Inverse folding.
């Protein structure tokens, strides 16, 4: 089996990235445990969690990234 060029694979994934997933939106809890993005006027926290259905826990950017609420993410990760 040949060696994979992970750098090239990584570069390719960046080439395919459309950049519309909120990289310019700050994290909700910078340096904390949450991967969710901050709520802003243009990115309100008005979307439900796809796992538990709780309302108003995700932003548009969180939803586009396929995230779930912090409570569900913590449960999936064993409480970490």
């Amino acid at each position: 089996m040949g060696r994979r060029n992970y750098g090239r694979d990584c570069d390719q994934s960046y080439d395919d990235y459309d950049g519309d997933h909120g990289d310019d939106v700050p994290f909700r809890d910078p340096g904390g445990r949450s991967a969710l993005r901050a709520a802003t006027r243009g990115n309100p926290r008005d979307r439900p969690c796809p796992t538990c259905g709780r309302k108003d826990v995700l932003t548009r950017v969180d939803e586009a990234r396929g995230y779930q609420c912090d409570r569900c993410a913590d449960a999936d990760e064993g409480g970490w």
In short: The beta strands are 45-47, 58-59. Confidence is low (pLDDT under 50) at residues 4-19. The two ends are 36 Å apart (CA to CA). Residues 38-80 form one domain.
